[in-house]
Amino acid sequence: MSGKPADTLLKAKDYKSEVKPVWCPGCGHFAVLSATTKALAHLGLPQKDVAMISGIGCSSRLPAYVSVYGFHGVHGRALAVASGLKAARPELTVLVAGGDGDGFSIGGNHFLHACRRNMDMTYIVMDNEVYGMTKGQASPTTSPDWAESKLTPHGPGVPSFNPAAIALASGATFIARGFTGKPNDLAKLLVDAIQHPGFSFIQALSPCTTFRPDQNDWKKIVRPFEQEATDDPVEAAKRIHADDGMSTGLLYQTKVPVWQPERSVRAQIDQLELGFQV
To answer: What pLDDT digit, counting tens, does each position of 215-246 carry?
Structure first.
């Protein structure tokens, strides 16, 4: 990570690393990178005070492309790593990046408990309804009738995972959906999510041009939510289940106590480690 002096006004380009992205041309993830750097520049966050954590997948390459502290973890464990970091270093702005496979399949259990634990961090999931890095298998959010994968030639045949509904039921206090075709709107959602005290979840609809070229049509059907965000979970649930998954914007936001363990836990661990010294 390279950085400028703390009193220097940073621009979006300053948050981009020298590593060139290797995503396919036209991938929606480029817009997530752009939105992330714009959001960090808007907030004026020092690079040394931000950490980006990820798991495995096309989306999880993001920490390499952002000039902040980063950790590229193992499949599905990004939220576990991020929770540990936030517990030990609560002063850091912790961002977590993943995909629909990484976050909702092998990482599904961590997603549930990160929502209910409500630590102060932001989770952005780049959802393209397919495992792109491993050549096009169906993911948890894939439509049950999508039959373009050799592993599911007749379609997955099971209902799609509903990220917003699961986040709401699990206790997330900020739930939004963005579209990579509108990167400035996505950047605004990220700014709001980072400023929100608690666990913020953004589902970013991010087309995979290689294995899901049909998703290029998303730009024709994506539209803003018709109503302002609500703080009523019952009303939010009604809106989620009445929606086709193509509405974007802030859906739900509420304030509940943020969970943060006492820093004294670290001291107790230090004392425990002394007992094992040889």
So the answer is: 999 999 999 999 999 999 999 999 999 999 99
Reduced to 3 states (helix: H, G, I; strand: E, B; else coil), residue 251 is strand
pTM for the structure as a whole? 0.91
Specify the higher pLDDT residue, 159 or 134. Answer: 159
Domains of the chain in sequence order: 21-274 (3.40.50.970)
93: phi then psi, degrees, rounded to nearest 5: -85, 115
Q: Is 153 exposed, middle or buried (0-12, 13-18, 19+ CB in 10 A)?
A: exposed
Q: Which residues is 98 bridged to in the sheet?
A: 125
% of the chain with per-residue pLDDT over 90: 84
